Amino acid sequence: MTQAPANRMRARTVAIDDPGDLIGLLPDIGGLAWIRRGDGLVAGGCIARQEFDCIADADEWWRAYAAELHPETELAGVPGTGPLAFGSFVFDPDNTAHRSVLVVPEWIVGRRDGQAWLTRVGESLPDDLALPSPGSALRRPGLISYADGSMSGPAWESVVAEAVARIKAGELEKVVLARDLLARAPEEIDSRWVVARLAEAYDRCWTFSVEGLVGASPEMLVRREAGLVTSRVLAGTIQRTADEEMDRALAAHLSRSSKDLGEHEYAVNSVAHALAPFCSGMNVPDAPYVLELPNVFHLATDVTAVARAEGSSLALAMALHPTAAVCGTPTADARLMIRELEGLDRERYSGPVGWVDASGDGEWAIALRCGRIEGNTAHLFAGCGVVAGSDPEAELAESMAKLVPMRDALEAG
Ligand SMILES: C=C(O[C@H]1C=CC=C(C(=O)O)[C@@H]1O)C(=O)O
């Protein structure tokens, strides 16, 4: 092992035995999580924390910070090992009271395909790295009550109706409009409880927890890993029922619905266009598949490409954000319409959330099916793509279906 210069922070990764339940390792407050199908990353402690106005500044800051770390690893090349920064970015820096953030945790425990590891970052590290002690038992939130957020359901329907009229008049092609809901518990909400419930019920999604923003996103904005770039584009949704046969018919209907296929195409085109300068050999499937989640079906397309050397996962996220799945088409017009009509501070909802390693590889989902937990309140968000053929009542119902993962997680038990 090489000696670190005295003034440099060390980051050491060692292989460990399977730690079992990752979420059980999260500290009672301030933990970070990124979980899918039982694997993933949990982290705690804070070596550095920085707020940003834009993703470019975060990319630059992390590059400089990571370059100063002295990494030592037993697992070179395993994604998620080494020092990491977890981050969460606002949707629209010009229309929010909130800020984007990167956090460099003191310890990270990861597991992927049967391989587990511990990374610790610090000025002096003992020879034998110890696992963090498990947090206290997860606490159920108790009886949840709900209140309208910035708008009632009917008021939001009229906003959607206005957007449809303006789309029909040719102002733009698609806009994604979001709404919020306030959930209140009798006591402080334990975000680890919500993480655990989401990770269990939505294991095909990426369950995240970064600075109070907790959710299970089905949409991978961009993953950069060992020279390969992947993006999962979603747009076009239908709610599931309790009836399997009916669901099969709905899925078939979704895959043929011209309204949903059109909405989806805008989103795929926006991703392919934004990725092109950073990639070669891009593969964009001709037609979407139907992604099945417990609450909804989505039209989905997995775009893959070979990464050019320059362009970290954060740079790619910056190029892609906001896609037509959360903003609209054309982007600038849709963003303006959102500012004008939505009447909502989206905060970090629908912005990139994820992690980046010292080489720039990382995973950034779009923060969907999520809420910001603070004290005894969870501020929940959901949005819908609106096109010329959209029906306001159906969009309101769709937004409610998209709130189900968080509501169920809060109410579970
Ligand atoms: C904006 C959201 O979903 C997006 C992702 C998938 C499908 C969508 C839709 O069909 O409208 C949305 O574009 C949300 O869940 O809040």
TrEMBL record:
This is isochorismate synthase. Residues 155-402 form the Chorismate-utilising enzyme C-terminal domain. One of its GO terms (molecular function) is isochorismate synthase activity. It catalyses: chorismate = isochorismate. It comes from the Bacteria. It is an enzyme of class 5 (isomerase). Pfam families: Chorismate_bind. Its EC number is 5.4.4.2. Belongs to the isochorismate synthase family.
